[in-house]
């Protein structure tokens, strides 16, 4: 049994089989030698008909009467004017209805609008994939037979940049119980291909909702001055107090956090700490080492965690002294979450909230080619929740 989709003709009220309608249109196009695509193609003609029908319906609503109803004074129709608009199927010539007093302001194709919104979305999508303005213009010429200037493409992308700037500077909540900070590393081609980190801060509101506080581009050598600027920006935008900041071992970040919010607790990401531990060890020992580490980060108190780590160090420290040094350096930022119960520990023990956010976000900008880079350590066989 064939699957068909039906719709109601708004004029006659009859049921229309969309599949049969499509087949009929294609059959007529073949009989008349009309291509599906191109300036004189079937889709171009259908787009013209749909747009003109929608504009005529807007005019009817504007005037309050149908096209052929007699006018009883007041505003009336006043012919049409030709207009060329760029659509997803290429340039389309349409006839836009006019009224006598010039008060008609259509919504489907606005006055002075030369592109439908779908075209802007195509430009932004191509730009986000790394095409330059010249390459985007060439794409429209090759695929749609339409001329789109580089200046037009730049204006489209500039609108997004303005919106991004407004979003980046928007006011923040006064208090965030938890803030997560982590980096997404991507390969960026801007003259040459290189790795570039983009730092993302995500706050948990007092209502338990996730709020992206901002995104900052770095160069890989960020220090205290960079992080103090980021923390000051967040604070100046209204975040007067932060209780806990979960982050990885980024140089100068803990000091900058406590400069901005003296009472904030800096908590290292346990997942990152464990992954970094495994990078110093042979893959052959990962499973056994993971079992020996678990009593450390699930200990009920700091004293118990220290005792469990001494046992771990006695077994592995001589073979892997770098692991001992890693944990000793991170200990001050490791232990704060041991003061909380298990439910809160599961929230603050990692920056997975950002990693899950990073997955669909390959940040890049106009004139920049970026591809997500697989994060080192992603192959480490650890549960996303180390306390599960």
From TrEMBL:
Source organism's superkingdom? Answer: Bacteria
What family name appears in the similarity comment?
A: Belongs to the transposase mutator family.
- This protein is called Mutator family transposase
Taken from the record, one Pfam family name reads: Transposase_mut
UniProt-listed InterPro entries: Transposase_mutator
Q: Where is region (Disordered) located? A: 62-81, 365-388
Q: What species was this sequence derived from? A: Microbacterium trichothecenolyticum (Aureobacterium trichothecenolyticum)
Q: What does this protein do?
A: Required for the transposition of the insertion element.
Q: Which UniProt keywords apply?
A: DNA recombination, DNA-binding, Transposable element, Transposition
């Amino acid at each position: 049994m064939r699957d068909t989709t039906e719709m109601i003709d708004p004029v006659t009220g009859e049921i229309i089989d969309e599949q049969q309608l499509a087949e009929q249109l294609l059959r007529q196009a073949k009989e008349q030698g009309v291509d599906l695509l191109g300036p004189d193609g079937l889709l171009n003609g259908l787009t013209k008909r749909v747009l003109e029908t929608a504009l005529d319906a807007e005019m009817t609503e504007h005037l309050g009467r149908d096209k052929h109803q007699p006018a009883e004074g007041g505003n009336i129709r006043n012919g049409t004017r030709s207009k060329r608009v760029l659509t997803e199927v290429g340039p389309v010539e349409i006839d836009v209805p006019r009224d006598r007093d010039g008060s008609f302001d259509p919504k489907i194709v606005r006055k002075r609008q030369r592109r439908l919104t779908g075209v802007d979305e195509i430009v932004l999508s191509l730009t986000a994939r790394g095409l330059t303005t010249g390459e985007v213009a060439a794409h429209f010429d090759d695929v749609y037979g339409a001329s789109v200037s580089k200046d037009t493409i730049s204006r489209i992308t500039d609108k997004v940049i303005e919106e991004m700037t407004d979003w980046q500077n928007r006011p923040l909540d006064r208090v965030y119980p938890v803030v997560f900070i982590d980096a997404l590393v991507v390969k960026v081609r801007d003259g040459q291909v290189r790795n570039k980190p983009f730092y993302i801060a995500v706050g948990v509101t007092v209502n338990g909702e996730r709020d992206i506080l901002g995104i900052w581009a770095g160069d890989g050598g960020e220090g205290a001055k960079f992080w103090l600027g980021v923390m000051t920006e967040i604070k100046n935008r209204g975040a007067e107090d932060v209780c806990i900041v979960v982050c990885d071992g980024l140089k100068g970040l803990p000091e900058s956090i406590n400069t901005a919010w003296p009472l904030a607790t800096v908590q290292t990401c346990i997942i990152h700490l464990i992954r970094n531990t495994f990078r110093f060890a042979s893959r052959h020992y990962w499973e056994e080492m993971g079992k020996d580490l678990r009593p450390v980060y699930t200990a009920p108190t700091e004293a118990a965690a220290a005792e469990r780590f001494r046992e771990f160090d006695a077994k592995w420290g001589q073979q892997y002294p770098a692991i001992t040094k890693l944990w000793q350096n991170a200990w001050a930022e490791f232990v704060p979450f041991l003061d909380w119960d298990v439910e809160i520990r599961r929230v603050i023990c990692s920056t997975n909230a950002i990693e899950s956010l990073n997955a669909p976000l390959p940040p890049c900008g106009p004139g920049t080619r970026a591809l997500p880079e697989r994060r080192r350590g992603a192959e480490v066989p650890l549960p996303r929740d180390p306390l599960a």
